[in-house]
Design a protein that fits this description.
Blueprint lengths: L7 E7 L9 E2 L3 E17 L2 E18 L5 H12 L3 E10 L5 E16 L7 E8 L4 E5 L4 H4 L12 E2 L7 E2 L7
Antiparallel strand pairs: 1-2, 1-5, 3-4, 4-7, 5-6, 6-7, 6-8, 9-10
Length: about 180
């Protein structure tokens, strides 16, 4: 089955986050890439060329539209300024045959972070994470619906909630029943 890019997101968390603390979804993600490459030893001999694999390196690159107050985007810049180690999960939002999300997990460091504010369009935030060692594949339990349906909203009745989309909304208090 073909995969759709919008169905893969990146979660990040400080490596020193408290036990039980949730990872952050980086809001307004537009692009994500996961690269693995191997340096090659390439030597010439009298009988031809000898090629052998060398060191493997791995990285994640992400781009998102700037979102004021987004904890995931704040962590990008905080981690690079402090040289702090992070944890990263690349998550397929479509559930697999086990009813879970396929995911790739890694420890790493932000190598770079960039915020670009052109005259037109939205502010763009981007970053590159260099992976420590090698990433690991696994499964995550189903993510909360708020993560999967980020930016979407459901039907509501007139007067049921108050507040703008993306901001805290208050719900109508329940009337006591007799």
């Amino acid at each position: 089955m073909l995969k759709n890019g919008k169905d893969t997101i990146l979660l990040i968390q400080s490596a020193t986050a408290a036990l039980g603390e949730s990872a952050f979804v980086i809001a307004q993600q537009t692009d994500l890439s996961h690269s693995i490459e191997t340096e090659m030893s390439d030597e010439k001999t009298k009988f031809g060329r000898v090629v052998a694999p060398g060191t493997t390196s791995e990285s994640f690159e992400l781009t998102a539209y700037g979102d004021s107050g987004d904890k995931g985007q704040e962590l990008i810049f905080e981690a690079i300024q402090k040289g702090a180690q992070i944890k990263v999960w690349k998550v397929d939002l479509v559930l697999n045959e086990n009813g879970k999300h396929n995911a790739t997990f890694a420890y790493g460091y932000f190598e770079s972070a960039d915020e670009k504010a052109g005259t037109e369009g939205f502010v763009e935030v981007s970053g590159t994470i260099q992976v420590l060692g090698q990433s690991q594949k696994g499964e995550l339990d189903p993510l909360p619906i708020e993560v999967i349906e980020f930016g979407k909203y459901g039907f509501e009745k007139p007067g049921e909630k108050s507040g703008k989309l993306g901001e805290t909304q208050t719900e109508q208090p329940q009337q006591p029943t007799e």
